[in-house]
Amino acid sequence: MEALVCKKLGDPTALKSSISEADNDSPIILSKTQPIPQLTTPTSVRVRVKATSLNYANYLQILGKYQEKPPLPFIPGSDYSGIVDAVGPGVSLLKVGDRVCSFAGLGSFAEFLVAEQDELFKVPDGCDLVAAGALPVAFGTSHVALVHRAQLTSGQVLLVLGAAGGVGLSAVQIGKVCGAVVIAVARGDEKVQFLKTLGVDHVVDSSKESVISSVKDFLKARKLKGVDVLYDPVGGKLTKESMKLLNWGAQILVIGFASGEVPHIPANIALVKNWTVHGLYWGSYRIHRPVVLEDSIRELLSWVAKGRITICISHTYSLSEASLAFAAIKDRKAIGKVMIAFDNERSVKSKL
Ligand SMILES: NC(=O)c1ccc[n+]([C@@H]2O[C@H](COP(=O)([O-])OP(=O)(O)OC[C@H]3O[C@@H](n4cnc5c(N)ncnc54)[C@H](OP(=O)(O)O)[C@@H]3O)[C@@H](O)[C@H]2O)c1
């Protein structure tokens, strides 16, 4: 089978063309001779992958800058969707031909993957299979953060940083489903216009205006005191500015550091203002609170089927174009998700 293999750490975007089978300079190669994984237990299931999403973490992992550092060589990739291809004799929940999605610690940038039956989620009718491959990590993270941890309620003010990115766009939509007043921060006209089409209450273009004054003007006009929940996948200067907008009793969701800078959240201010700081590592819920994670993905899939949320995909590539896919993430071009899909006829499609 075909798979993308990371054979050394480095920048996968350096090669801005097709990935070959043997390139000594590239950290990633396209292997066409990987063995098709066999069923490992009576309850395991083999999935023929239809689509797999790129998360910022996949990029960091190939760079060697992610918290989890697998031994080399490894097949990167986490969330995916596909069709059940083979089932073990003890599988009762799924059958060959079922549409499923899930996520793995590694290995989804490949044509086939093996998982336990209870790790897979049926993709409901009405939910596009490629889009389902983008749901688990991005929407799962935002759902656990906003619904389970912050318990966001109707009328609360939610401020989302990096709002046009993978996790950001999911947080914006989940915020609207919860009935929150949603303020989004993103850079550039295209992202701002797109966020407005989602019914966001206020969008700040961080390339043109000050986040503090723009949000303060909006809050004043709407007779709102401040921000109740800060969703922060960016860190750095934006976090520092956003803290000036938080209410007494606000909650800060620490999601990631796309800016490359871990923010400093002063404990003395948190004390005086009664803030709650939630560190959130979604993947670790599979080990520590699997039921929370599974319920969350099931609820999200039902929301997609009912049209309550939409999975936005701005770029889709083939496996051999993975370096371009990583470049779209690195260059901050993505609006929503970047995908690698199998059996693609065209190299890059835009659904925007
Ligand atoms: N805690 C968890 O369990 C969890 C789960 C998933 C992701 N994450 C983390 O969340 C962060 C975002 O992930 P993602 O998949 O949403 O990434 P993404 O799609 O690339 O979005 C990141 C967004 O951050 C903004 N940004 C600001 N400064 C940036 C910079 N210097 N470089 C790149 N982007 C910058 C960009 O928006 P503008 O260009 O509009 O500013 C971009 O849209 C990552 O740090 C990731 O590791 C954490």
Automatic annotation (TrEMBL):
Pfam families: ADH_N, ADH_zinc_N. Residues 22-340 form the Enoyl reductase (ER) domain. It comes from Salix viminalis (Common osier). The lineage of its organism: Eukaryota, Viridiplantae, Streptophyta, Embryophyta, Tracheophyta. This is Enoyl reductase (ER) domain-containing protein. CDD domains: QOR1. GO terms for molecular function: oxidoreductase activity; zinc ion binding.
